[in-house]
Amino acid sequence: MVRVAVLPGDGIGPEVTACAVQVLRAVAPDLELAEYPFGGAAIDRCGEPFPEETRRGVAEAQAVLLGAVGGPAWDAVPRQLRPETGLLALRGALGVYANLRPARVYPGLEGLSPLKSERVTGVDVLIVRELLGGIYFDPDRRIGPDEAHNTMRYRRHEVLRVARIAYRAAQGRSGRLTSVDKANVLEVSEFWRREVSSLQAEFAGVSLSHEYVDSAAMRLASQPTRYDVILTGNLFGDILSDLAAVLPGSLGLMPSASLGDGTGLYEPVHGSAPDIAGQDLANPAAAILSAAMLLRHSLGRLAEAERVEAAVAATLPRARTADLGGRVGTQAFAAQVLSAL
Ligand code: NAD
Ligand code: IPM
Ligand code: MN
Fewer beta carbons under 10 A from the terminal one: N or C of the chain? Predict the structure, then answer.
């Protein structure tokens, strides 16, 4: 029996996760789906964002499907107990160091982007974000009355393991890999660049280039088709992947897969969207497409993954949620995906 742990979380998390679960049940009825408290919901129920019950549940699962965490209700809790801290702890516990965030513009859906259609035609970018290091995970972080600090540090093995994932992904695609850093200013980026370059000989057929994060941000919006695979660190990847959401048209179209050596974690790139939570307004496509990534990367069920992606692509032209300028609700969108399946 294959087990998937489901962590709906907060805000729109439970709404979009319910849709992804319906889709998983439809294409893979044999899966055992077990739900656990996580994030702010877990703080309210158990006093902590990543409780023992949930730790045990994810440890027994082959993959984890997550909605989103956080929201104004928990913004004032101590940092160690914040929902977001729980999410970082979950990523750490699973050892998922490589976060794959694809931004794809399906043929015929160029009009969903706020950018000019001719700019986004054919866009298919894969951002590979380092997820367990850098400035997010500084053991010496500190805030005092007069100063605070977080250090951006990368160790060789942390750079090499995620870089290998990106090189391999580029080999299976068009072979172009762009590493994004700030090596003109930061030693940590100079190191990142050197280590990424050191692997070039191992990956014949991949052409590696380097860009600074500021100009990469500009080019991602103005000439997105120049990119195939983008490899970058934790913080830059967080920012660039939200920016990349304007290519398909909405954060509601950005799924992700976080991979390490064991259990994979699958979650939309977006957050809990407190501004639209509880109103049936959220676009569940990112969550559904994250479930497709789960089928592909953790369960090896490629045909089912493709069926789900095709059903979403078939639904988008006729059913638009509010973020894409339409009036279709979360549940109605999911119902259309299910009937397309
Ligand atoms: P957000 O991603 O939640 O929302 C940003 C904007 O995008 C909002 O206007 C929202 O309505 C819209 N949006 C996001 N997802 C959407 C969807 N599926 N359909 C339609 N519209 C959508 O970012 P935020 O507002 O900065 O953060 C809200 C909370 O979420 C914060 O507590 C933050 O820490 C948390 N957060 C969690 C995650 C995660 O769990 N992985 C990711 C990002 C932010
Ligand atoms: C994301 C989110 C998280 C991150 C937060 C909520 C910890 O923004 O998944 O992109 O910064 O990684
Ligand atoms: Mn983010």
Answer: N
Indicate whether 1 pLDDT > 90: no
Q: Which of 246, 251, 265, 266 to probe ligand 1 with, by most ligand atoms within 8 A of CB? A: 251
**70 Cα to the center of ligand 1, angstroms:** 9
pLDDT in tens, 99-111: 999 999 989 999 9
Q: What is the mean pLDDT of residues 39-68?
A: 98
Judge whether 283 and 324 are in contact, CB under 8 Å: yes
- 113 is a domain residue: no
> Considering the domain boundaries, does residue 333 fall inside one?
yes
Confidence of residue 341 (pLDDT cuts 50, 70, 90): very high
Percentage of the chain surpassing pLDDT 70? 100
Which of these three, 216, 246, 276, is where a domain ends? Answer: 246
Domain that holds residue 326: 1-98+250-341
- Radius of gyration of the CA atoms of the chain, in A: 19
In a domain, 104, yes or no: no
Structure tokens at 119: 């700019």
All residues at 6 or more sequence positions from 148 whose CB lies less than 8 Å from its CB, including other chains: 142
Asked if residue 72 and residue 36 are part of one domain, the reply reads: yes
CA–centroid distance, residue 305 to ligand 2 (Å): 25
Q: Is residue 165 part of a domain?
A: yes
d(CA 268, CA 251): 8
**Domains contained in the chain, number:** 2
